[in-house]
Amino acid sequence: MYGLLVLLGVIILVFFLFQGFGDATTLVAGQTSDSATQANIRKELHLDEPILKQFVYYLNDVSPVSVHSREEITNNKLKGIFIGGDKKFGFKIPYLRKSYQSKRDVWSMLMQALPGTLILAIAAMFVATLIGIPLGVLAAVKQNTGWDTSAIFSSILGISAPSFFMGIVIAYVFGFVLSDWTGLNITGNWTTIDEITGEKTLALKNLILPAITLGIRPMAIITQLTRSAMLDVLNQDYIRTAYAKGLSSMQVVWKHALRNALNPVITAITGWFAELLAGAFFVEYIFGWQGIGKVTVDALEKQDFPVVMGAILISATFFILMNILADILYGWVDPRVRVK
Predict the structure, then answer these.
(1) φ, ψ for residue 191 (rounded to 5)?
(2) Does any domain span residue 97?
């Protein structure tokens, strides 16, 4: 319920920010359109209605539970289960309306781009987790040594470096200056199209540079959180008891201490994964990676607001779902926080 309230707040903000204070007629019809065409478009988009009524129409469109006329279902090609007469009640895929520029369904456009963003975010978080957790554990176990100092210094650098800046530097150094040695391109999508046959093939090497760029900041956060949590856990009585029972340092650190130190790390991983989906916008744009981020930036340049609004709603939904997942993972990792 809390997640639904957050999503409702996002919908209100998005609507009044992009549609509530402007007239999209000229964006849809063009500057040279005649008054009759503009009037038809205003009627079709409900722009001739009071602003609160426009919002109700928009809320009805984006909601999976809604009421639509037979004509709206046919014209907008709504997909779902509908029952009733002229006015039908139904459960449907959210209707994010149509692009001003391409006239394509926004949901279809974003769903086509979503796999690229998911692949990039998962790869970035995999890199961040694979390096960040062991580095944080090492820093905690080797506290006040060179390993600890190096880990802290590296994490501070990672937190301080904006993704768009690091993207430009990494793309230039490894995709241009050292491209003969790395074999990597400065830009590229996760699929390539053969110029002769037109066949699509995977090009996952293009994932390396944007995934590293996007994973630097969460890796730094995970390193610091893991180190702090491990330092707290390693001073607990049960850790001393485990050593007294003759368990090896490897068993104590990785089996007992790390598991009880993972709650804040899980928060970081789940939270950052959702943020990576939204924060990949400029990284995708820099590396030419086809995902929701690049589609959204292109839409902003063209003032294609339905695409931007849809992308924001999808990103917000992922934030909410990842927070729910974090709560579930807490109970799995630490039985003390399970709901009875």
Answers:
(1) -130, 150
(2) no
The pLDDT-based confidence of 213 (bands split at 50, 70, 90) is very high
Q: Where are the alpha helices (DSSP H) in the chain?
A: 2-18, 25-29, 35-44, 51-62, 70-75, 106-141, 146-160, 163-172, 179-182, 208-234, 237-244, 249-251, 258-260, 262-279, 281-287, 292-301, 305-333
Range of the domain at 161: 106-337
CATH code of the domain in which 165 resides: 1.10.3720.10
- Residue whose entry in the numeric block shows the structure tokens 């089996």: 255
Same domain, 178 and 266: yes
Query: What are the residues whose beta carbons fall under 8 Å from the beta carbon of 6, sequence distance 6 or more?
Result: 316, 320
**Cβ–Cβ under 8 Å, residues 43 and 23:** no
140 and 282 part of one domain = yes
The predicted model scores a pTM of 0.80
Identify whether the C-beta of residue 337 lies closer than 8 Å to the C-beta of residue 331. yes
Is 257 a domain residue?
A: yes
- Average pLDDT over every residue of 39-65: 84
In a domain, 112, yes or no: yes
Assess whether 120 and 210 both reside in one domain: yes
CA distance 131 to 137: 10
**pLDDT band of 44, cuts 50, 70, 90:** confident
Question: Per-residue pLDDT averaged across 138-154, rounded?
Answer: 87
Q: Please tell me the total count of domains within the chain.
A: 2
Q: What pLDDT, on the 0 to 100 scale, is given for residue 293? A: 87
Q: Is residue 65 part of a domain?
A: yes
- Amino acid 244: pLDDT: 81
Residue 137 CA to residue 258 CA, distance in Å, equals 8
Whole-number pLDDT of residue 66: 93
SS3 call for 41: helix
CA distance 212 to 318: 22
* pLDDT of amino acid 49: 82
Record the tokens describing residue 128, joined without a space.
């961040």
